Amino acid sequence: MNPGACPLSDEPPAAVFEAVARRFSVLGEPTRLRILHAVCQAERCVNDIMHVTGLEQANVSRHLARLYQAGLLMRRRVGNRVFYRASRSPDIDLCRLVVQQVMVGQAPALPGRVTPVSTAVFPVESKEETSV
GO molecular function terms here (predicted)? Predict the structure, then answer.
């Protein structure tokens, strides 16, 4: 297959394009990407995410809800705290790829700061996933 070729042989229905646009809209918000980055580094509760990102609680909670509803996060409750971590969604892999491409494209502007995406930006979790 030609690397630039689209693997779709038929025109997808309009509903497919709408679903794809909804998925991209979740990842199209920089604040959600910052939160996703934080929970890809380690499982975190809302307070931890607030500390890492510098965001307010209401803002963090709103974005966590959207990421969870989109299937990008898993969560578990421990007492009165809820811990979040990245799911094994293909969207996470897509995000890793895009971040890697952007970082490579910016490499001259960021000498010595480009780190492999798989370990620095969105590390891969090996734990078994469960949801609340």
Answer: DNA binding; DNA-binding transcription factor activity
Residues 6+ apart with CB under 8 A from 6: none
Residue with tokens 């990842």, as numbered in its chain: 27
pLDDT in tens, 63-103: 999 999 999 999 999 999 999 999 988 888 888 888 888 88
pTM (2 d.p.): 0.70
Contacts of 97 (CB under 8 A, 6+ apart): 117
Enumerate the domain spans of the chain. Answer: 14-120
CATH architecture of 14-120: Orthogonal Bundle (1.10)
Asked if 114 and 104 touch (Cβ cutoff 8 Å), the reply is: yes
% of the chain with per-residue pLDDT over 90:
45
